[in-house]
Amino acid sequence: MLALIAVVPLMIDRARSIETDRAERIAALSEEALALTRQGIEAQQEIVVAARSVVQVVARAHATLGISQENCGRFLAGATSDAPWITGLSIVGANGRVACSTVANSIGFDLSDRPYFQEAQRTRTFVVGDLAIGRSRGVRLVAAMPALEEDGWAASVITASFELQWIDRVGAEAARRPGALMLVADLNGTVLAAHPGRDTWLRKRFETNPLLRELQTRDSGIAAVEGIDGVRRVFGFARLPHASAFVAVGLDEAEMLRRVDSEMRTAYLQFALIGAFVLFGVWVGGEHAIVRPLRSLARMAVHIGHGNLQIRTTRQRWAAEFVPLAGALDAMAHRARGGIARRQRAARGARAPRQPVGSRQPPQLRRQARGGVA
């Protein structure tokens, strides 16, 4: 019992430590998912800033230099030579028709109904359209910047479509974790990009999925919910800047907890073995150092109680804690022997015959009798 009292608090403390470690690892998993999400947010901001710089330069050059139709194509191609991530750069007239572009088959295309074109003409500022799924290049964005005349009239609008290469980069980084999932979805729940399984989930809507409900509720955060594939993960998510869409990175909770639980089971097993060894050692040590001496002293007390007064506790070596008790038993046996001897002498004296007073012999006769004289 004393051993259990000593070991149980240690076991409880160890269990609390293991559970704390488990909670810390889950928190670390959440922070890791959120960190991957932030990588996407930062990359999105960087690419939008870079796109703004390109269209701003082209808009100013077009408004200032009045680039001719013949030189327009070469000018736009030169502007994008150092920006391979730009998939198309165009000059759109005030009527919404593409007048010049690095994409040859887009010349003459009508963009007057596109929200980003209308917004750029109305606000006369840089605008970014919604995310779109390209035919072969994945997710892309379109940025627009009006080329303003001196009187402030937007004679044309410069548009640039650029692909979000960071999606593949973050997706590849997330895929290094077993069971991870990275996806980009719009506010309606339509999946615009997913890694892995891009072809499986692309353009599908999951408006009732718990994850997408979380995306529609908050701009950023962490949620442990089921993903679009029904697997529970710890998701870090955030709204993309300049877009009505979210990026979410989920790390498999079960996979992470499987490693943690395995380590916990190992730690519990080790602690159980150590506890059993300690209890066994305490039991053996207690049996040898406490129980056996107590049993020996008890047997000696029984012998003394039954009259075996020749027994001596000093014939054995005792631990310091038992020396006073052994000495007390010896003293008790000694006193008992002295008492018995006194009682025996008294009893013998009581049994000896006494002569009558009047029959006493003269001293001479008594001496003769003792000396053997007739």
CATH architecture tag of the domain at 50-166: 2-Layer Sandwich
> What structural category do the secondary elements indicate?
alpha+beta
How widely separated are the two ends?
A: 84 Å
The count of helical stretches stands at: 9
General description of the model:
The chain has 374 residues and is an alpha+beta fold. Helix content is 53%, strand content 19%. Among the domains are: 50-166, PAS domain (Beta-Lactamase); 260-349, no CATH class. The chain contains nine helices and eleven strands. Strands 1, 2, 3, 4, 5 and 6 form a six-stranded antiparallel beta sheet that branches. A five-stranded antiparallel beta sheet has the order 8-7-11-10-9. Helix 1 (2-65) packs antiparallel against helix 4 (165-175), helix 1 (2-65) runs antiparallel to helix 7 (253-305) and helix 7 runs parallel beside helix 8. The mean pLDDT is 77.
Q: Layout of SSEs?
A:
Blueprint: H1 2-65, H2 69-79, E1 86-93, E2 98-101, H3 115-123, E3 127-128, E4 132-133, E5 139-148, E6 154-163, H4 165-175, E7 181-186, E8 191-195, H5 198-201, H6 210-217, E9 220-226, E10 232-239, E11 245-252, H7 253-305, H8 323-351, H9 363-371
Helix pairs in contact: 1-4, 1-7, 7-8
Question: What tags apply to this protein structure?
Answer:
374 residues, Beta-Lactamase
Quick structural gist:
The chain is of the alpha+beta class and 374 residues long. It has nine helices and eleven strands.
